[in-house]
Design brief:
The structure is a homodimer. By secondary structure, chain A is of the alpha/beta class. Chain A folds into two domains: 9-75, no CATH class; 82-285, Uncharacterised protein PF01937, DUF89, domain 3 (Rossmann fold, 3-Layer(aba) Sandwich). Helix content of chain A is 43%, strand content 12%. The first copy, chain A, has helices at residues 9-12, 21-34, 41-52, 61-75, 82-105, 109-120, 147-156, 169-180, 228-236, 245-251, 267-273; strands spanning 142-145, 160-163, 184-188, 210-213, 239-243, 258-263, 280-285. The first copy, chain A, has a seven-stranded mixed β-sheet with strand order 1-7-6-5-2-3-4, sandwiched between helices.
């Protein structure tokens, strides 16, 4: 098990992109274009030149947003991952009864549900473009595991904000949301961005919770751009759970405490978290003083 | 076992780069810069912008050459992989006695030596930046296996040209070269390019053969740029063995028959060969008519 890292820089530094985020964004551009009728060389050239003006003070998700915008502008395809999202939800719904049974049979149902939600974070077309989901929870170790703090916070929590990530993944989150036995507000994107779940697909997830939109159609949660409604819920909820890479990349320096639940899918995010690529973390990021 | 593909396009088309070769070249740039004192953002920007003018009619190796030239020009470091090359040779020499023993104990020593040479092609810092070498030959299947044609050609061959690839790998090739029991000329690069073996490191390989240089310090063998001396040997040898990706990428449409021995390390090369990524091929490319 990796050692939990809580060195001060994690709390005061906003996550910055690494040089590796640029070629990663170009790979993402190529995969996305293949979903909109093929790679157009002139569009790819434009994307590469824009990325060539990179500023690494942005979080990694910034570059995927830039790529997505250029492709949308040139192809007119608003939602290249629409079909993927639907298929991911359908597949995840087909294993949902099995996931519920795992929780019922678990010695520690809450920890089991956290692991299932974490496992759902494997469903991602943004970072590598392909994924495999192995439903064997015995293979899941939380490299950072703050479940005890989570249990404590849950006791007194009246309202929980769950910031969702991808389609398909959200059915795995549904298992955790149901296991909380508390009023939960689920935040989703206001428009399509990669395979993130949006308000347009929530109906098909069968989740019985209140849904709100972040107010943006970009990756993660950029607090300077979200709607006042989202912001209010964000700051007034007793517990905030943030799923996945991009939400972590954009909220890691937020001025409130957050439980981050994600698989570190690349070296860049793994290094910031002090874990190895592929590790799963359930990390309680404490509100910063000041 | 994959089916051997001999469809006509393989013989008449020069290998072209795919869009994926561009981000791959940028990753390579980042890794190479880390070997020359770190990633300089302005140099990386220049590289990305140059790659943004891509022309996919080049073979993939063209882009790595371009990256290498820019980095060398800006850093003044002539050979960023010097230390890697030395270490790879030292490591390979340490397992050389074991490799020789494998051949001695094999039912089919020539096939065993071909597999060992193929295994050496795993030692590469160009494509992915890291590698693992598993000496278990039972795990090696040749997805394309033209050893019977090779045996036939060897019988009458008076001189064999072996076009080498990487440092370290060449010790594995040494096992094959020694098993040929024929006069062999080994071609190496005239100057440093990634971890390709050059005339500067051949002494430490302990290979008892005639060495010649290609006349260039670029990846692969660009027949329009090589020296007249190399060209003469290339056309006059009875058998030509070409190791690795870049030699394949640049020689696949050459006007003479060649035995290509390589591991397909990326989807792009795998697709051209009609095999899967990771597969090893020993492919006899027959001289084209006309």
């Amino acid at each position: 098990m990796a050692v939990r890292v809580r060195s001060p820089p994690l709390f005061i530094l906003k996550m910055r992109a690494a040089p590796e985020c640029i070629p990663c964004a170009i790979h993402f551009a190529i995969r996305t274009m293949r979903r909109t009728g093929g790679v157009k060389e002139d569009v790819l050239r434009e994307i590469i030149k824009k990325l060539g003006d990179f500023d690494l003070s942005h979080p990694p998700s910034y570059f995927a947003n830039l790529v997505f915008d250029v492709i949308r502008e040139h192809t007119g395809v608003r939602d290249p991952y629409k079909k993927d999202k639907h298929e991911q939800n359908q597949w995840a719904l087909s294993v949902y009864p099995e996931l519920k049974r795992m929780v019922e049979e678990a010695d520690d149902p809450l920890l089991c549900a956290v692991k299932i939600s974490a496992l759902g974070n494997t469903i991602d077309l943004g970072v590598s473009g392909s994924y495999e989901v192995d439903l064997d929870l015995n293979k899941i170790n939380l490299a950072i595991n703050d479940i005890d703090i989570f249990r404590e916070r849950l006791k007194t929590a009246k309202r929980i904000l769950f910031i969702a990530d991808n389609a398909g993944e959200i059915i795995f989150d549904r298992v955790l949301i149901e296991e909380l036995h508390k009023p939960v507000v689920v935040a989703v994107k206001s428009g399509p961005i990669i395979n993130d779940i949006t308000i347009e697909e929530v109906e098909e997830t069968g989740i019985n919770a209140e849904f709100i939109e972040t107010g943006t159609a970009s990756l993660g949660v950029e607090l300077e751009k979200v709607s006042p409604e989202f912001k209010k819920v964000f700051y007034e909820s007793d517990v905030v759970i943030s799923k996945g890479h991009a939400n972590f990349e954009t909220l890691d320096d937020a001025d409130r405490d957050i439980f981050f639940l994600l698989r570190a899918k690349c070296e860049i995010v793994a290094e910031v978290l002090g874990v190895r690529k592929g590790d799963i973390v359930f990390w309680y990021s404490k509100k910063q003083a000041g």
